[in-house]
Structures are given as C-alpha cells and as structure tokens.
C-alpha cells in the first residue's frame, strides 16, 4: 500500500517532532513514521524523566563532531528561549538548575505532549508501530519501505537519531539509509557514557564514592561531580570526558582541583599533621588512602622534601589511567559520529548529494555535552529542516 504526503519524517523523536511542527505550520502535509508505540520515547527518559530540554547558553563549543562549526547556523536561529516560550505557551512549568540547565518541573511527558498535540492540531499524520527498513528514490520522489507497508513522498527527512540507548527503540537505520544514498558516515561511538577502568586499577573497588573532581582527556578538562562505579567512573565529569575520549587515550584525574598541595603542606593549619590526616579531611577517606604514596602517609606534612611534596601533589592531582573502554551504547545518552556534516547544508539540513533528502538531530555527526545540548540540537536542526523543506 502506498500513502501520499508532501513530506515523510522518519522518527517521531525530538527532532522529527520539531521538524513536523515547523513544516506543518508552513502548510505542508506531513507524515511521521516511527516503530515505537508512541512518539518521543527518548525525550521521556531524558534527564531522569524531567528532561533537561535546553541550556541558557548554547554554542558550537558545546558540541563535538568532525566539523565543529556545522551546528553554528541552526543554533543561531533557534535560541533556548524559543523553546522556553513554546513550553510556556502550553503552561509547562520549568526550572533552571546549575550550569544553566533547564529542566521540566513536572515531567518530560509535558514536552512530548506539547509537540505531539501541536503536530496533531496542524494535521500531521502519525504512522506509529512501523519499522522502517530502507528508503530509495524513484522518478516521483522517495519510497520508504516499512514492515507491512510502503510510503511515498516528494521529500524525506531522516530524524531517526543514533543507536545510543536501544532500550527505547534507538537504531542505526538513519545511518544505513544515509549510506544507501551515498553519504559518508563518520565512525559512530557511544558518548555521555560511563568509562571502564582496567583490572587492578589503583582506585578500583571504590564504588559509591562521589566527589567533585577534574578530568582531563584529549586536551579538554571538566570539573564536575564524579562517581566511582563497580567497573570505573561515571557522573557528569566522566560523562563529559567520554565525549572527548577515544580508545587508547589516557585520562587524568585531579581530585583536589585548585588546591596547591605543596603550599598546603606548609600552611599553619596542616604543617604538624600527618599527610594521611591532612588529606582524609579534604577527600573521602578510602580514596585518600589509595592515592597517598605508601611512604608518605605517616609523615608530618611540613617534613616532606620538596620532591616528596610534588610526588604527593602528582598522586592526588594528576592521577593518570588509560580506560579499557566505555559501558557501550546501552548506557550511552548519545552517540558521536554519524552522517558526515560536510555533505549536508548547515543552513537547511538538506543533503548536498540528493535533493529533497534532509537529516536532522543526532543522526548527524553532532553530539552535545551534558547539559541539555543534545535536545537543543534536535530542536534547532529540526526547526532548520522544517523551515527549509
Ligand atoms: C537516558 C537518556 C537521557 C538523556 N537525557 C538528555 C537530557 O536530559 N538532555 C538532553 O539534551 N539530551 C538528553 N539525551 C539525549 C537526547 O534524548 C537525544 O539526543 C535526542 O532525543 C535526539 O533526538 P533525535 O530526534 O535525533 O532522536 P530520537 O529522539 O532518538 O528520535 C529518533 C526516533 O526514531 C525512531 N526510530 C529509530 N529507528 C527506527 C526504525 N528503524 N524505524 C522507525 N523508527 C525508528 C525511534 O523510535 C525514535 O522515536 C538523553 C538520552 C538518553 C538515552
């Protein structure tokens, strides 16, 4: 069976819904196709169910991808406050948390409801429970193969996201479709994901301990909360670091960011203390015990030589380890890599290889840091595609 519509959007997730709403507002007949039973399943699990839907400050530096500048144009045309205005128009309560993160006060379901009800009011058709298996082009437009049916439209938007968190129906179909139209796919890897440490790691077995710490990798440093897990590290600091970490790269932990340890050893408050006592007052005890070099813990702080003070500082502020990997797609909030942005217009999201084919959201090689940036990219790119199509 073939249905006819102006535009087919594959994926009724964050970006697909925004694109549908925008295109339908401009008078287009839009059909959204998704294999889920209901739209926006990833939005519903976002931010622990409260959905960190944007951030007060959003710019290209908040994203990773081969072409860091690709997102600039769409971000410049969709500010965080436009999303806030949309939600406020529908009476959705929101709140600002630290680092400029904006969350729903009630539930992420509010965001999904706003987008789906707007789409329905504008006449968008939802083809839910339809697994897309491929797409091709014929003389009249695009043909979409779904299990059990075939759909046709003159323009096609691929908004099927990334394979991260498959528990809510995430797949790599968007990348496969892009490839079938001749697009290059930048290698896909899980990000915003806990990191796994090697067997016998000096800090293994500290699961449950959390503290504010710095993590550096690939020339980037984040100072945020860090959580030790059974297999490695998680928490905002580790998730952010995972965006910049590649296999084989080392991580450097700073467990007392901003603290001058050699100076601390000299200070009147600490000079007579044992090194162990001094550091267990500043760090969780089990962590401090693991970090302090064995021969230094039982010595008085002021008695350490300059070299020993530096050794202590390095142990606490430059703990270096090479993770063995990540917890993988099942525990990743996003995936980096995807459709090569060099082959897509940054203004319209249209393919530079196939007229009438558009990409929006996480299917593209654009991944955001923790803090509402991934959803904001989904909104901004969906808006850009919906305005251009
Ligand atoms: C646990 C978790 C928490 C998160 N928290 C946040 C947060 O608080 N803030 C933030 O900014 N970002 C967060 N993210 C990331 C954010 O949710 C995504 O970046 C965003 O949803 C991507 O939007 P999208 O439209 O590109 O893809 P999606 O929202 O994933 O939508 C893609 C749609 O395509 C459909 N689909 C996939 N394959 C097929 C197929 N073969 N056939 C038919 N349909 C298909 C899916 O069912 C889905 O509905 C979180 C992600 C996870 C997993």
From TrEMBL:
The entry's keywords: FAD, Flavoprotein
RsdA/BaiN/AoA(So)-like insert domain residues: 189-333
Superkingdom, natural source: Bacteria
Cofactor: FAD
Chain ranges of the RsdA/BaiN/AoA(So)-like Rossmann fold-like domain: 6-387
Gene3D superfamilies with a match to the protein in the record: FAD/NAD(P)-binding domain (3.50.50.60), HI0933 insert domain-like (1.10.8.260), Translation factors (2.40.30.10)
Keyword Ubl conjugation: no
InterPro entries: BaiN-like, BaiN-like_dom_sf, FAD/NAD-bd_sf, RsdA/BaiN/AoA(So)-like_dom, RsdA/BaiN/AoA(So)_Rossmann
Name of the protein described by the UniProt record: HI0933 family protein
């Amino acid at each position: 069976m073939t249905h006819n519509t102006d535009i087919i959007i594959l994926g009724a997730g964050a970006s697909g819904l925004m694109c549908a709403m925008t295109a339908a507002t401009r008078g287009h007949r839009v059909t959204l196709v998704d294999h889920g039973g209901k739209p926006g399943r990833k939005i519903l699990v976002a931010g622990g169910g409260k959905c960190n839907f944007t951030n007060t400050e959003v710019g290209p530096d908040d994203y990773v991808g081969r072409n860091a500048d690709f997102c600039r144009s769409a971000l410049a045309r969709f500010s965080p406050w436009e999303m806030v205005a949309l939600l406020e128009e529908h009476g959705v309560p929101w709140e600002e948390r630290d680092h400029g993160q904006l969350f729903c006060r009630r539930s992420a379901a509010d965001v999904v409801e706003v987008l789906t009800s707007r789409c329905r009011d504008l006449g968008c058709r939802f083809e839910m429970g339809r697994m897309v298996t491929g797409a091709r082009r014929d003389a009249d437009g695009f043909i979409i193969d779904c299990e059990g049916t075939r759909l046709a439209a003159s323009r096609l938007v691929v908004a099927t996201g990334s394979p991260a968190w498959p528990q809510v129906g995430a797949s790599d179909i968007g990348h496969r479709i892009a490839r079938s139209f001749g697009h290059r796919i930048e290698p896909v890897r899980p990000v915003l994901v806990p990191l796994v440490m090697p067997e016998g790691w000096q800090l293994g077995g500290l699961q449950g301990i959390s503290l504010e710490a710095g993590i550096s990798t690939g020339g980037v440093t984040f100072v945020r909360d860090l959580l030790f897990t059974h297999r490695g590290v998680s928490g905002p600091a580790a998730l952010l670091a995972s965006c910049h970490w590649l296999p084989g790269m080392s991580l450097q932990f700073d467990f007392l960011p901003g603290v001058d340890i050699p100076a601390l050893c000299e200070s009147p408050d600490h000079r007579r203390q044992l090194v162990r006592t001094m550091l267990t007052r500043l760090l969780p005890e089990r962590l401090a015990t693991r970090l302090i070099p064995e021969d230094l813990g039982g010595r008085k702080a002021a008695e350490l030589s300059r070299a020993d003070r530096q050794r202590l500082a390095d142990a606490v502020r430059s703990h270096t380890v090479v993770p063995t990997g990540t917890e993988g797609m099942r525990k990743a909030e996003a995936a980096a890599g995807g459709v090569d942005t060099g082959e897509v217009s940054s203004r319209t999201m249209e393919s530079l290889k196939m007229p009438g084919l558009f990409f929006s959201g996480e299917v593209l090689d654009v991944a955001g840091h923790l803090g509402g940036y991934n959803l904001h990219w989904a909104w901004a790119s969906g808006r850009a595609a919906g305005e251009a199509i």
